[in-house]
Fold:
Amino acid sequence: MTTHSVDEQPPSKENFAELLDEFVGDSANFEGRLIKGTVLSIDNDAALIDVGLKVEGRVLLKEFSLPGQPAELKVGDEVEVFIERIENRRGEAVLSRERARREEAWEKLEKAYQDGERVSGVIFGRVKGGFTVDLDGAVAFLPGSQVDIRPVRDIAPLIGTEQPFQILKMDRRRGNIVVSRRAVLEDTRAEQRNELIANLHEGQVLEGIVKNITDYGAFVDLGGVDGLLHVTDIAWRRVNHPTDALQVGQSVKVQVIRFNSETQRISLGMKQLEADPWEGVAAKYPISAKYTGRVTNITDYGAFVELEPGVEGLVHVSEMSWTKKNVHPGKIVSTSQEVEVMVLDVDPDKRRISLGLKQCLANPWTSFEEENPEGTVLEGEIKNITEFGLFVELSGEIFGMVHLSDINWAQPGETAIQNYDKGDSVKVKVLTIDIEKERIGLGIKQLDDDPFQVAHSKRGKAVTCTVTALHDQGVDVEMLDGLAGFVRRGDLARDRNEQRPDRFAVGDKFDAKLMQIDRGGRRITLSIKALEVEEEKQAVEEYGSTDSGASLGDILGAAISRKQKEEVNASPPAAEATAEAAPVDEAEAASAEAEATPPENEVEAAPEAEAEAEAEAAPAEEEAKDAAEGVDKDS
Structure:
């Protein structure tokens, strides 16, 4: 029989319950709390940690490392973990280093958020609308608009690098934290900007980094403030685009050109740090000198040619070719082409050099003048018809113009130009050559004599006219192979009663005296009245004078009678001579009678008046013949 002492008696049920409550009660108080433990061992990807609760727990090694970095943990290290449960099915404590860090971080973050302090974190992932940031165990959200002051195209350099952040919003219950890197940069830039602007002045040389490039220039970060480096201030030479000389992230040395303290705008320049190539350019490039340059840019009005780095001149489109007009410069030269040019003008103040391309070539206008002086007759093709004339292509792409006034002598230019079409081949005469203005005046009507020259030789003489139109003021006529003339109403007849345009019809012909010639206005004035007065005057001068009181009929009658008496008293030989002379006298009389006789069309216009005049003149004529015979007998 075994005996037991009082001290060795087994515990009662009451004592066991007390011990269990003591152990479990103390352990239960540790759940959901942070506690420090010791690393007992490291097996594969987990660490065994003793937290002093008569149980151990396992924690994955990845929970001890920062994102993208290996875990730095060894046996014997003391670490802080979060107790989720005292014991699981395997009798181990459920521990979490990640939750421990998160709980620890949340406490620090809440304090920083309340105090407005910045926190450090690492961007380690990308999510919709932004990025994820590890704030020493707590995961925060970084919106894409809060990454930088300006949009960042490539964020790869920022991932995995510790950055300062400002907490914008946090909710521990939901586990949400929103941070901003932009707010930190703005505060930092504001401090740097104020310090930089306080000491900034024009002419100051600074170093900066190219932050952004546009078509018109580049923005350079001067350390808290940005300045604009315009494309024209990058270099003295022509820079078509800033990317030809700069790259984003490039470190550059610039000079402050302009600074507006009110708008805080800064204009920068790089070329100002180099020597100005335009100094002494007038002496370096004298007028009329020839140089070889490279075409750097082509525009609608010309081409820019680089004579040396930083010095360019303009070849205007009018100075590119002797013959090609209204042609785009790109059809004559091309970019990067080496060309020979002549200096035409230099303006150092405006930094302009005028160059000429055609001056280095032979002038075809000079050759044309030598080969085809004024008065030369050529044949060419009509290339264009305008409202002021015809453009005719001559030799070697040289064009001349036939003005409206030089197409036809008789027709107006507007009418004459309608007889020509583009592509027609015409003969022309060279009238004028202006080499400086590169103009050639041509004429078509000059191939024939000016009919007004013929009219000028007929001035004061009788010409035959054809009626072309009737007006109240007079009659339009045509004469001398197409020349137009005009007979005024008062010049249609000597008799006032006959001064009526309706006496004539279109197509009627009559003789009139050519009175006036207006070569400028191409107008000729004629008179029937003046012709009648002149014919009467000639008759009086030939047969006698009216000063004695004798009438024109008396004079004519006496002359006829004298001739008849001479014929009767003449001997047979004399009669023969008289017979031979009679036809001559009769021819002269007939000629005089024809000159005194009114034009045929006037007879047709007034037959009754002419018949009466003949009836009255017949007796008088016979009396004149008798009187002439009597005079001859008396003599």
Remarks:
- The CA atoms of residues 562 and 628 lie 4 Å apart.
- The two ends are 229 Å apart (CA to CA).
- DSSP finds twelve helices and 30 strands in the chain.
- Residues 1-8, 571-635 have pLDDT under 50 and may be disordered.
